[in-house]
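$ ./design --mode recover --in tokens.txt
reading tokens...
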């Protein structure tokens, strides 16, 4: 998904769709991980695999550079946003016990006088928070950390309340999903308020103790700190550990490979306990999530696969990455814990797909370029209708600024080839016949996404296009009309067109291609300027959209709506 290609090192989400499990060669995984360590992609790893009745833990690298000791199944890692799945299971458990209901308003569990944003008379519910559909932003804007290396340590509940009281929702509640660490942190907070105990105590009582996860915690006791690994940034430097007192439900948990294997087995139905009904409920479909047929339950994501659905989540903090994915139908699951910024998603999804060669890393030899070589690359490159990468230079170093994400350093291997140390990605710059740079290609997680370099005129055209996209004869197509069109339409097996809502209108994305903006001719007919095609949507007697027809090059092709 283009808008998430450059992973944010802040409780990151990088949606990845995986295929079916194949037998895994332990020695081959170990060898592949060693190449990532050798070429400075990562520091240490714990890999867990469940394959039918077999369970394996593979380790590589070091837990701490200072000691050189290898990580073990007991080593502790920050698991980041996988914490959200614990919060989802906690919510399900409290629903099944009659303590809360999914459609209870969040405000009803907050102290008197604390106000939450509303829109069109609708209030945010627990379900909205658990499915990232509350309309709340990814993070509050009033975060101003005293220590940027531990950015949430001093963010207080009162600050969160103040932000919520002043925030104006930009769209209707429940209209569209948008990943929100704020929303999930708020969910953990209100569940703890309802139970009358801190979030950490609540998950220990409701989840960790029933499953026998003795090493999983938020607060590490002094006698167990020796098990804590060091986290590392993209350049391999030691990072600070993160504290998330207010956003605990979004990403505060630390755990070991041994405990997370118990957790994965429980979610695969291989460990039965009193918590099993809540675990199963947390997996159940709640709504579609973004493009590509992705679905969400209570925090858990489900990626559709031809060989069984993949239940998954990932996580990232300042110096750690984590990934868990399960093909429950095939009794196959993968866990990745890394004490670096390396791509746990790439490693985990490659194991699930049986493509271990994708894990193997090659040496990146950095070269120094002249000032003129760097200047020719500067500019703004568009990869999607509302997503650009701006290339800048400072003190002789090149940087990439993706829309809505932090700045990333770029490191040259040649005049037009660069790699990123902060995430496992690279960028190629493309020249025209005259030698001028006209575009770039972002290479990440097996995808190659092109981005056209924008001229001043092109940027002006984009602004005009954004203003005109959803307007017909001077009148805007309504939000309700657009909402009916959202979803996936199947052109052929494994080949779909996904209609999605972006900030400035609708987009259409064909499997394996970038998303293109749609321009309205009516409430059911749209055209694509980029490829010279028209889409017509068919509406049934009940007012629901049933299919779309693609008109292009004198041909017509119908696609039935499947989600």
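writing sequence...
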């Amino acid at each position: 998904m283009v808008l998430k290609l450059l992973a944010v090192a802040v409780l990151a989400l990088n949606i990845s769709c995986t295929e079916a499990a194949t037998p895994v060669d332990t020695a081959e995984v170990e060898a592949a991980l060693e190449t990532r360590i050798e070429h400075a992609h990562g520091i240490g790893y714990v890999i867990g695999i469940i394959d039918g009745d077999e369970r394996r833990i593979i380790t590589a690298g070091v837990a701490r550079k200072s000691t050189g000791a290898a990580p073990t199944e007991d080593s502790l890692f920050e698991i980041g946003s996988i914490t959200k799945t614990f919060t989802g299971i906690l919510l399900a458990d409290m629903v099944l016990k009659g303590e809360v209901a999914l459609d209870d308003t969040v405000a009803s569990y907050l102290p008197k006088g604390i106000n939450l944003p509303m829109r069109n008379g609708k209030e945010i519910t627990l379900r909205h928070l658990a499915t990232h559909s509350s309309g709340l932003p990814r993070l509050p804007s009033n975060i101003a950390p005293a220590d940027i290396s531990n950015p949430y340590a001093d963010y207080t509940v009162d600050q969160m309340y103040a932000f919520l009281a002043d925030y104006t929702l930009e769209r209707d509640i429940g209209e569209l999903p948008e990943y929100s660490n704020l929303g999930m942190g708020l969910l953990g907070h209100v569940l703890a308020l309802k139970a009358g105990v801190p979030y950490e105590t609540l998950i220990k009582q409701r989840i960790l103790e029933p499953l026998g996860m003795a090493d999983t915690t938020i607060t590490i006791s002094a006698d167990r700190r020796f098990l804590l690994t060091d986290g590392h940034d993209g350049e391999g430097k030691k990072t600070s550990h993160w504290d998330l007192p207010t956003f605990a439900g979004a990403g505060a948990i630390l755990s070991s490979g041994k405990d997370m294997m118990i957790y994965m087995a429980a979610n695969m139905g291989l460990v039965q306990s009193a918590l099993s009904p809540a675990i199963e409920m947390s997996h159940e479909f709640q709504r579609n999530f973004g493009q590509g047929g992705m679905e969400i339950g209570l925090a858990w994501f489900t990626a559709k696969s031809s060989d069984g659905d993949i239940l998954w989540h990932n996580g990232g903090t300042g110096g750690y990455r984590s990934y868990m994915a399960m093909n429950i139908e095939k009794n196959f699951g993968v866990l990745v814990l890394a004490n670096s910024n390396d791509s746990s998603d790439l490693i985990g999804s490659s194991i699930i797909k049986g493509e271990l060669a994708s894990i193997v890393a090659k040496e990146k030899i950095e070269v120094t370029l002249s000032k003129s070589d760097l200047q020719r690359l500067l500019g703004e490159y568009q990869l999607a209708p509302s997503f650009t990468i701006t290339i800048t230079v400072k003190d002789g170093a090149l940087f990439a600024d993706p829309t809505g994400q932090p700045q990333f350093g770029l490191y040259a291997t040649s005049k037009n080839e660069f790699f990123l140390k902060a995430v496992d990605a690279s960028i190629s710059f493309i020249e025209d016949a005259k030698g001028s740079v006209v575009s770039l290609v972002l290479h990440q997680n097996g995808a190659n996404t092109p981005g056209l370099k924008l001229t001043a005129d092109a940027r002006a055209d984009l602004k005009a296009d954004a203003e005109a996209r959803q307007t017909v004869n001077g009148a805007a197509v309504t939000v309700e009309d657009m909402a009916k069109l959202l979803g996936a339409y199947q052109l052929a097996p494994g080949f779909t067109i996904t209609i999605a809502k972006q900030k400035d209108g609708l987009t259409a994305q064909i499997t394996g291609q970038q998303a293109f903006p749609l321009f309205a001719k009516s409430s059911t007919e749209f055209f694509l300027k980029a490829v010279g095609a028209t889409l017509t949507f068919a509406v049934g007697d009940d007012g629901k959209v049933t299919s779309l027809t693609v008109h292009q090059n004198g041909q017509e092709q119908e696609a039935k709506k499947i989600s």
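exit 0
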